[in-house]
Amino acid sequence: MFDVIVIGGGIVGASTAYHLVQSGTRTLLIDRHDTGRATDAGAGILSAETYGGESEPWFNLAIHALDYLPDLIEDLETDHDNQTGYDPCGLLLVAASDDEIESFDRAKQHIFRRQLQRKNPAPSELYEISPDEACDLMPPLTQVQAAIYSKKAARMDGRLFTASLYHTAVRQGLQVVHENVDRLLLSGDRIEGVNAQGSSYHASNVVIAGGAWSTTIGDQLGVQIPVEPQRGQIIHLEHDQQDTGHWPIVEAFHDHYAVPWPDQRVVVGATRETGSGFDPYPTASGIHETLGEALRVTPGLKSFRIREIRVGLRPFTIDYLPVLGTIPGCEGVYVATGHGASGLQLGPYSGKLIADQITGNNIPLDMNLYSIARFAAVRPLHPSSM
Asked: Does one domain contain both 223 and 347?
């Protein structure tokens, strides 16, 4: 008998399980490790302060997430065998061509308005720089029309960070099984556990953190979890004659970026393919788009070799906010998914929020903003069909 069962072992599920175990909660993690899991194919850009959009709920969640991250990393790195894959490196937000100037100016207004209102980051940590200064920081850039530089931005290796959460939690008592959840065990509108490949596991709370695959579990509850997979293709480039470790991240418009890493590697991406279904494989058109945009923004990467192509199926919602918290009418069931392309940035903190909800800890955010209840009403349960 467990207190909580977490379904899904990506960064959100691993963080939820980690924080539950930290609080002394008996926790079971069930993960089948699907090909195409978004955690394994994330770029790992951590930079809420350069978000130029208008969604305050997203921005507030991201700011809380990044403010919390140093404490989490410190806790994880007390075990010297842990590698979190976290690396502060800075970020350039650039307009690479004249047709991006209008979008850049609009984003700049949002960025500096928030900076002024919050009095954070300091002016010395987030500011506009000249095109020449941007090219000095990131040599593969050659044509920049305008740029903003954030010194606080960082990169994260999603695989390493998730593994760090996972292995730390296991050492502290987390139980793990690698199985497929066949069905939920219900008594009326109350969760009692799950059945996975013929074995029954009992718990009074279940967290659905299955990324884009969460919908199949919600269907058993008569609940539509409003996420769909959006395929993202990213390409890892390498050059054995380039010291890429000191280069900052570059974000341009049209949803493309370049993330340098210390091992002579630069990750470029990404496509955003809605309607791709659960097809986790790279395509000719996706590779063409990704490389084309990478060389448009950072033409100095043209001599880099292709090391690896990764594909992630990101769980997107129609309003680009994650789905976090309880499910009305389903006692003991929680959901944590829908982070889209921001899973590595938001996921560790989202896991803490869910763990805090379950254990009754104080939460500094209005969770109603992220609740599944903001979508359609929940349909009644039909336990007899379970």
From this structure: yes
Convert the pLDDT of each residue in 333-347 to its tens digit. Answer: 999 999 999 999 999
Mark whether 312 and 235 lie in a shared domain: yes
Domain that holds residue 35: 2-40+159-227+319-385
Contact 370, 321 (CB under 8 A): yes
Q: How far apart are CA 38 and CA 11, in angstroms?
A: 9
Domain boundary (316, 336, 369) is at 316
Give the model confidence (pLDDT) of 34-73 as tens digits.
Answer: 777 888 889 999 999 999 887 999 999 999 999 999 999 9
Which amino acid does the sequence have at 267?
V
Q: Check: pTM over 0.90? Answer yes or no.
A: yes
Task: In whole angstroms, give the CA distance from residue 260 to residue 282.
Answer: 21
CATH code assigned at 110? 3.30.9.10
Closest CA to 279 of 317, 211, 232: 232
Same domain as 166, residue 121: no
Helix (H, G, I), strand (E, B) or coil at 283: coil
User: What DSSP designation does 20 have?
Assistant: H
Radius of gyration in angstroms for the set of CA atoms belonging to the chain, rounded to a whole number: 21
Question: Measured in Å, how far apart are the chain's first and last C-alpha atoms?
Answer: 20
Asked if residue 312 and residue 240 are part of one domain, the reply reads yes
Are 301 and 288 members of one domain? Answer: yes
The CA distance from 39 to 372, in Å, is 22
283/295 Cα distance (integer angstroms)? 18
Asked if 148 and 127 count as a contact pair (C-beta separation under 8 A), the reply is yes
- Could you read off the pLDDT of 346-375 as tens digits, one per residue? 999 999 999 999 999 999 999 999 999 998
H or E segment and range at residue 58? helix 56-76
- Distance, in Å, from the CA atom of 196 to the CA atom of 182, rounded to the nearest integer, reads 5
Q: How far apart are CA 30 and CA 14, in angstroms?
A: 10
What is the full DSSP assignment across 167-231?
HHHHHTT-EEE---EEEEEEETTEEEEEEETTEEEEEEEEEE--GGGHHHHHHHTT-----EEEE
